[in-house]
Write a structure and sequence with these properties.
376 residues; mainly alpha
């Protein structure tokens, strides 16, 4: 298998070939020129990830544009650049995985504040989040405990039935703020400052702003100059994140093991397809192998495959999904037993995308040389 992978190289004039060339050059010499070439190559997959996210969520996140998502994604290049495993995945597809997950993680946090007024956001925030947001903001007019007590009073007076609170909860009126401030002054410790209705409203507005900033901090361009006295850009100061489980799974020492795990899944299907006498599962396995070849080798879409094999499109989709699920399960069991890593939702998202890329490369490599029901 290793010899086969060594023989598989893209055409010398392909963008991926030159991306690999400059990537290897950068690994060996840490050349800025090589890194610039790689950044340029990654602009397109980064833009594609950003544009796709904008298209899907433009209504939900109207304040975010394609360029905002692009900025979120491109700042993650240093996260994965030293760790790409060329023996398994292409730089382009691996980058798309990182870019997509970076945007998803960012917007998952932002989604918690989307559509909420300041007042409903305050009511739907946990004490831990409230405390951490204010501490992180570093702009407290009074001690944190005073904010916490005022917040408790706000919820006590204004949120009588929290099960019926809507996202667009309107601001309390002056009478309510007076009730909140009165309750606060009754409960406050001697060291806490007294407060009136106006101050209560200001404290809660400041707290809501801190929470919103914590959930969805503003996007700063990595091309922004650091200061008037420092002409470097912010991207010059970016450093790689700590090692993550996904990188442990895909490091160069595990390449052959991963190939074996994934190929074993295909071999199990092939063995089932060759069973004599044939069973119902034998026909299904034969159908799966045909679908895999048509989809990953001949680039037919699911509808075309369904028409060719005279089956429904959703059947094609289920067959493809079942193969990837089995591969994911096998990789999960291998990672847990060999690397002592349990896959969470983020790792699963990465692996799913990379399994897809592996299938494309595998079927491109084996070509038409193998017989119909054999996977070698």
């Amino acid at each position: 298998m290793e010899k086969s992978w060594e023989q598989y190289t893209p055409a010398n004039n392909s963008p991926e070939f030159w991306a690999i060339y400059w990537y290897k050059f950068w690994l060996n010499q840490s050349s800025n020129l090589a890194k610039d070439h790689i950044y340029a190559y990654l602009q397109e997959p980064c833009y594609q990830a950003a544009e796709k996210f904008w298209y899907l969520y433009q209504i939900k996140f109207p304040d975010y544009k394609t360029e905002d998502y692009f900025q979120i994604a491109i700042s993650n290049v240093d996260r994965f650049l030293p760790k790409v495993n060329l023996n398994i995945f292409s730089i382009r597809n691996y980058a798309k995985t990182i870019f997509s997950n970076a945007i998803t993680d960012k917007m998952r946090c932002a989604n918690k504040s989307v559509g909420h007024s300041d007042w409903s956001l305050l009511i739907n925030t946990s004490e831990t989040a409230f405390r951490n947001s204010l501490q992180t903001s570093g702009d407290l007019a009074v001690p944190l405990d005073s904010y916490l007590l005022a917040w408790d009073c706000f919820k006590e007076i204004y949120a009588i039935d929290q099960t019926k609170i809507k996202k667009q909860l309107s601001a309390p009126n002056k009478e309510v703020w007076q009730q909140i401030s009165q309750l606060y002054n009754q409960l406050r410790q001697p060291t806490y400052p007294e407060v009136n209705a106006t101050a209560s409203a200001q404290w809660m507005q400041s707290a809501a702003h801190a929470i919103r900033q914590s959930l969805a901090p503003p996007i700063t361009s990595i091309n922004q100059v650091i200061s008037a006295d420092d002409s470097r850009e912010l991207q010059d100061l970016l450093v790689s994140n700590d090692e993550e489980a996904i990188e442990q799974i895909l490091n160069r020492d595990t390449t052959e093991q991963i190939n074996i795990v994934l190929i074993n899944v295909l071999q199990q299907i092939a063995q089932e397809a060759r069973q004599i006498p044939a069973k119902k599962t034998t026909k299904t396995a034969q159908e799966i192998l045909k679908i895999l070849r048509l989809f990953y080798q001949q680039s037919l879409n699911q509808t075309e495959i369904g028409e060719l094999l005279e089956i429904e499109q959703y059947t094609v989709s289920r067959r493809l999904k079942s193969v990837k699920e089995n591969m994911l399960k096998s990789l999960s069991e291998w990672a847990k037993s060999t690397l002592h890593i349990s896959m969470d939702s983020h790792i699963i998202n990465d692996i799913n995308y990379l399994i897809e890329d592996w299938l494309y490369q595998y079927f491109a490599m084996i070509g038409e040389a193998t017989c119909e029901y054999t996977i070698n």
